[in-house]
Amino acid sequence: MAPSLPNCRNYKVPRDISFSGSGFLATYQLGVALCLFKYAPWILRSAVCVLGASAGSLIATAVVCEMNMFAIRDEILQFAKHVTLFMLGPFDPSIKVANWLERLLHKYLPPDAHRQARGRLGIAVTRVTDGKHLILSEFHSKEDIVQALLCSCFVPGFSGYLPPTFRGEHYMDGGLSNIQPRLPDSSDVTLTVSPFSGDADICPADPPSNLEMVVGSAVLKFSMTNNLRILNGLYPTDLETIEEAFYNGFKDAIRFLQINDLVPSAMSEGPEMILSDGQANMWKQNRTELEDVEMKAENTAVESYSSTWTDGSVEPEPFRDSHFHFDVVKNVLLGNASTYLSMLRLPARILSSLLLPLVVSFYALLQSRQRMELLFRQLPEIVFWTWHGVRQCFLFFVNIVVQTLKKGMEERQGS
Question: Has UniProt tagged this entry with the keyword Lipid metabolism (predicted)?
Answer without folding.
Answer: yes
